[in-house]
């Protein structure tokens, strides 16, 4: 419960037995004279990572509080706050001094999703001090640095240059980028301001974050120890909100893992050798060079040994776990006793990089520096590879990811939730030809030569890196449209979540959503689209012919998702041979999701959306777990229908998948028998501990549910969801669908009646679409806040989240929720 008194500027929050009272923005602030007069020692709470004056101009008052500049006057009238430690006879208990107000980190997958959230924040009357963290490649405005294509390295070199330096970075100090100057903004807003005012948006964002109440960032900035350390992020006593958190288990496991190929190791080894020969402190780099050399020798030996086994995927692999893995790592030079010394060398080398130069210490000899050696240090990329390797080993040995070494348990016990894999191509020439074909299909130049050996240190338990990142936070909140089932997050993330909520959709499901399983093709033959059946021409023909009928009915944009690029290629090849592809192209513009993200993907999305906006209509053929299925907002006519072909199970031949399933099975067995578990913690409820098969199922359906959600994006949107596979008729499969679809699947006896119902659905909506309300009136600002900008009609049409928002009272901000009676359902088919 929260009680807010806007006149006194005080807030009281009671949560989990903690009483907190605060004045002003970040705690109790009163003038020194008042403190001495009262004889009470008060806490002045400031920022630990920046100048307290940063972010506020001289003379600027604390936002939302008039009490910070003078002692509060007591009053017994209702609605007035009573200052703590006041010497009057009252019934109220004195409020204790508040700890710093928790900072909020709002993390999501992509910067486009951050921009959507910021756009909604702009619609409110709230004006928190905020910042958007992003990498240099997103924020850099220095044209010469951008042209090099190696922004991180070039930026660091330019910052160290005394002769030139970076004018944009220098202007940060000269101009004083503050929160009063940069208010509610997204990445693009700060970029535009940086270009206009000639300051560096990257360092401006970091300065703004140091004094911000609300920080937006991609969620690898929280989960990844390297990103967290590099950006100076400290989440202790903070509130962490992970949006689109359905993938957080996989992301956490990746944050605790490390995969490096032999070519990268050799490049790092060579850069360290240059440091030993040409930098002023070779003693810092020599132990790291020897470490990398020993690892390369060990990896070569394993790759040529009999322990390598050929898998179905066509790769040769050697897997290690438990005592065998510890012995192998000791042979490679990474025993638990050596990690602390290697870490100290890495930290010292990083500190030295900022001042490294091509000079030898007095009394030492150094040869002529070759032209191929561009910098005196190893460089951020090489040290980053070493950091990634050592952080994975530190987590595996129970030493914590960053900072001083801390042992929480023995390496033997801690390492049981890790596996190690050495792999290489079984037939290098065949692998090269396959990669070359894939590269040509994606517009890349391809590769040549033997594919390198790869080392993977894999975390099986996401709780280990998740708790390492979030264990000191005040609260952690996971949100997504596809978190269901919720209970299993407790086991996988090692956390008992005190509160859970699974809500219905905001739309009228009967009128605005048509959802059905399509278990047959046009000939009414059942379609069980397993991995094996998708290789058959009969199944490919049934899918193609059924898709033609659907595309004829669904207006505007249609999204079609399949399980993999391999399946996509097979379908295209077959449909082009049978004429189905030409028929689809005659109905709509057909766009295929490219294998590579970046510019190719942006071009494909532009083609798709342009065709839809021009009235021709378009069909996007994409894959589950791809960028189109998870990171893009297809609102309104951009996606009037989504067709989900099959269930996107992971490849059973993948050794990572097999290892994770075996790990979960062992974990569940240990819990059932009362033995000490191999995980980092989790729920004590035995029922929510996932078996390997259950984890495998949930991983597939979360990817499917996320793709399904591309169709309905706001309260006034509408569309169709088609689940093309006979397995969707099974209750067990339907139980794993998102709640908003789970109870609203329509049932039909054959393909013809299904198509007839779908046609009637869109015909009714064409005559009577959901009506949007008029744009909201301006929201009055709370005292001390600037009035928010009111979106124009065009912005309002693009996003419906602002619809129905009520005006806040003049004395304080508020949220008003309105419910509308749903319109009468359409006539049955």
Structural write-up:
The chain has 829 residues and is α/β, with parallel strands linked by helices. The chain has 32 helices and 20 strands. Strands 16-17-15-18-19-14-20 form a seven-stranded parallel sheet, with helices on both faces. It has a five-stranded parallel sheet with strand order 5-6-4-7-13. The chain has a five-stranded antiparallel sheet with strand order 8-12-11-10-9. Strand 16 (589-592), helix 25 and strand 17 (618-623) form a beta-alpha-beta unit. Helix 12 (262-278) runs antiparallel to helix 13 (282-303), helix 22 (537-553) crosses helix 23 and helix 22 (537-553) runs parallel beside helix 24 (580-587). It is globular. The two termini are 49 Å apart.
């Amino acid at each position: 419960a929260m009680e807010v008194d806007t006149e006194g500027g005080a807030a009281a929050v009671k949560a989990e037995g903690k009483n907190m009272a605060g004045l002003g923005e970040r705690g109790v602030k009163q003038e020194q004279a008042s403190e001495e007069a009262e004889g009470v020692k008060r806490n002045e709470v400031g920022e630990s990572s920046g100048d307290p004056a940063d972010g506020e101009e001289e003379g600027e008052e604390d936002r939302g509080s008039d009490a910070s500049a003078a002692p509060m006057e007591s009053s017994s009238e209702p609605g007035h706050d009573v200052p703590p430690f006041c010497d009057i006879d009252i019934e109220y208990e004195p409020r204790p001094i508040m700890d710093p107000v928790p900072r909020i980190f709002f993390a999501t997958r992509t910067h486009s999703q951050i921009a959507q959230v910021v756009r909604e924040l702009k619609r409110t009357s709230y004006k928190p001090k905020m910042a958007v963290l992003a990498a240099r490649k997103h924020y850099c405005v220095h044209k010469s640095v951008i042209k090099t294509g190696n922004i991180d390295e070039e930026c660091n070199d330019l910052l160290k240059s005394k002769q030139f330096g970076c004018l944009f970075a220098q202007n940060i100090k000269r101009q004083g980028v503050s929160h009063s100057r940069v208010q509610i903004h997204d990445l693009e807003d700060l970029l535009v301001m940086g270009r206009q005012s000639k300051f560096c948006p990257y360092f401006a964002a970091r300065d703004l974050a140091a004094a911000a109440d609300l920080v937006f960032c991609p969620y690898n900035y929280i989960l990844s120890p390297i990103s967290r350390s590099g950006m100076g992020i400290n989440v202790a006593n903070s509130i962490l909100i992970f949006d689109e958190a359905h993938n957080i288990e996989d992301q956490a496991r990746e944050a605790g893992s490390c995969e490096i190929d032999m070519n990268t190791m050799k490049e790092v080894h060579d850069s360290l050798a240059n440091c030993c020969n040409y930098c002023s402190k070779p003693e810092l780099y020599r132990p790291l060079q020897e470490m990398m050399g020993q690892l390369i020798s060990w990896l070569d030996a394993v790759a040529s040994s009999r322990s390598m086994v050929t898998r179905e995927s066509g790769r040769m692999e050697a897997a290690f776990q438990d005592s065998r893995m510890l012995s192998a790592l000791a042979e490679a030079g990474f025993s638990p006793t050596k990690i602390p010394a290697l870490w100290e060398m890495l930290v010292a080398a990083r500190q030295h990089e900022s001042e490294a130069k091509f000079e030898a210490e007095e009394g030492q000899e150094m040869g002529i520096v070759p032209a191929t050696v561009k910098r005196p240090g190893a460089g951020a990329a090489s040290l980053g590879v070493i950091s990634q390797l050592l952080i994975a080993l530190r987590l595996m040995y129970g030493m914590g990811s960053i900072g001083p070494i801390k042992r929480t348990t023995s390496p033997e016990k801690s390492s049981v939730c890790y596996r190690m894999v050495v792999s290489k191509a079984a037939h290098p020439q065949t692998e090269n030809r396959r990669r070359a074909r894939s590269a040509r299909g994606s517009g890349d130049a391809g590769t040549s030569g033997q594919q390198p050996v790869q080392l993977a240190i894999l975390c099986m338990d996401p709780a280990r890196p998740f708790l390492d990142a979030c264990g000191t936070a005040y609260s952690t909140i996971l949100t997504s449209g596809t978190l269901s089932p919720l209970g299993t997050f407790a086991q996988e993330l090692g956390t008992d979540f005190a509160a859970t909520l699974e809500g219905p959709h905001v739309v009228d499901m009967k009128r605005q959503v048509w959802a059905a399983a399509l278990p047959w093709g046009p000939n009414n033959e059942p379609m069980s689209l397993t991995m094996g059946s998708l290789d058959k021409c009969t199944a490919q023909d049934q899918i193609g012919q059924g898709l033609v009928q659907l595309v004829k009915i669904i207006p505007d944009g249609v999204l079609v998702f399949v399980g993999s690029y391999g399946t996509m290629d097979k379908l295209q090849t077959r449909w082009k041979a049978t004429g189905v592809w030409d028929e689809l192209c005659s109905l709509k513009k057909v766009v295929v999701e490219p294998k590579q993200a970046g510019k190719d993907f942006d071009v494909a999305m532009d083609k798709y959306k342009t065709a839809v906006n021009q009235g021709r209509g378009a069909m996007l053929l994409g894959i589950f777990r791809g960028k189109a299925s998870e990171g893009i907002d297809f609102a309104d006519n951009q996606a009037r229908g989504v067709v989900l072909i099959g269930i996107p199970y992971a490849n059973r031949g993948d050794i990572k998948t097999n290892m994770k399933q075996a790990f979960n099975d062992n974990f569940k067995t240990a819990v059932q028998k009362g033995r000490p578990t191999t995980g980092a913690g989790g729920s004590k409820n035995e029922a929510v501990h996932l078996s390997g098969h259950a984890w495998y199922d949930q991983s597939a359906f979360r990817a499917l549910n996320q793709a399904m959600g591309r169709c309905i994006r706001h309260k006034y949107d509408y569309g169709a969801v088609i689940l093309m596979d006979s397995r969707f008729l099974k209750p067990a499969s339907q139980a794993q669908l998102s709640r908003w679809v789970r109870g609203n699947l329509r049932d039909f006896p054959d393909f013809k009646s299904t198509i007839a119902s779908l046609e009637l659905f869109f015909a009714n909506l064409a005559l009577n679409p959901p009506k949007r309300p008029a744009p909201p009136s301006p929201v009055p600002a709370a005292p001390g806040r600037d009035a928010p900008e009111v979106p124009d009609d065009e912005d309002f049409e693009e996003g419906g989240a602002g619809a129905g928002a009520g005006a806040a009272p003049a004395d304080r901000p508020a949220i008003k929720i309105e419910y509308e009676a749903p319109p009468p359902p359409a006539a049955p088919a």
